[in-house]
Design goal:
2 domains; 9-stranded mixed β-sheet; 9 strands; globular; binds NADP nicotinamide-adenine-dinucleotide phosphate
């Protein structure tokens, strides 16, 4: 039986990008690496921090999100492989939710590639989104470390199902998708993006293969762009911008049409 679309949370995508849409400096460099973060921020004019604060406040006041969604690419390189071997989790593996916290940091890691050092705190639980193909030993390890997991999907994480399960398990009504281009592109292609907030700063990174804020599968022949409805633009005093958009297809909860005030 299919679950009704409206049982999923609203997905609010946030990103911080150069003018050419890049979200890091090169394919091999992740912003969690201190040297990369330093060089990334060196390219920011002084207005970026203020725009990021305004964006966070606006989202908090309008959506009060309790769940942030990330992809594994934020934590490991594209060519990283799992250190856990052995059989997959399979169909019978139950979810593991060891504790209840006000916030959830959910990370898609269907291949079991991230060797977690931080496991969350009293305010925020780390919850890994896995699938039946994820190594069972990885899920065992998560459980031993007190990290939660949801098994959602067969060969890869089913993002629509993951959102529904985040709603059912944690009461999430809004999920902030703050990942890189891979997870963002997969959400877009699955029709799971409702709102987009781009803080763009005046710099160019370039380079084929450098992550942009929307990668993933290209459109097929004859495919159409996803139309957006702009609903707010804030200009910083050094040339950066924070642009807000809503995907032109209304979320089923928006009965009577999109109602987001600027
Ligand atoms: N500037 C910013 O705002 C910002 C924000 C976040 C990250 N970043 C940067 O972006 C880079 C990472 O980007 P990335 O594109 O390499 O990694 P990514 O966005 O994390 O994309 C890979 C993730 O997407 C998942 N995925 C891909 N296709 C999928 C599908 N069809 N269904 C379900 N899940 C799917 C993968 O799942 P599996 O793990 O299961 O394979 C993986 O978790 C890093 O350098 C990071 O620092 C920048």
């Amino acid at each position: 039986m299919s679950t009704p679309l409206w049982s999923r949370p609203r997905v609010v995508m946030t990103t911080t990008a150069s003018v050419d849409g890049r979200v890091t400096l090169s394919p091999a460099e992740r912003l969690l690496q201190p040297d990369v973060a330093r060089r990334w921020r060196d390219a920011w004019p002084p207005d970026v921090e203020g725009l990021l604060e305004q964006r966070e406040r606006w989202i908090r006041e309008h959506h009060a999100p309790t769940v942030v969604l990330e992809g594994s690419g934020t934590f490991v390189g594209r060519d990283a492989v799992s250190r856990w071997t052995g059989p997959p989790a399979g169909a019978e593996r139950p979810d593991h939710v060891p504790r209840s916290t006000p916030r959830v940091f959910a990370v898609v890691d269907g291949r079991g590639r991230v060797d977690w050092t931080h496991t969350g705190d009293d305010e925020t639980s780390l919850v890994v989104l896995a699938c039946r193909a994820t190594p069972a030993a990885y899920l065992d390890d998560l459980e031993e470390r007190g990290i939660g997991h949801l098994v959602v999907g067969d060969r890869t994480v089913d993002l629509a199902l993951a959102l529904q399960r985040l709603a059912a398990t944690f009461g999430a009504t809004v999920v902030v998708a703050d990942g890189g281009g891979g997870i963002n592109g997969a959400l877009l292609r699955a029709g799971l993006v409702d709102e987009l907030h781009v803080v763009m700063f005046p710099a160019l990174v370039g380079g084929l293969g450098t992550p942009s804020f929307l990668d993933g599968d290209p459109l097929g022949p004859g495919g159409r762009a996803v139309a957006l409805r702009p609903f707010g633009l804030v200009r910083g005093d050094a040339g950066s911008t924070w642009a807000r958009y809503e995907v032109a297809r209304a979320h089923p909860d928006d009965v009577g049409g999109p109602g987001l005030a600027p």
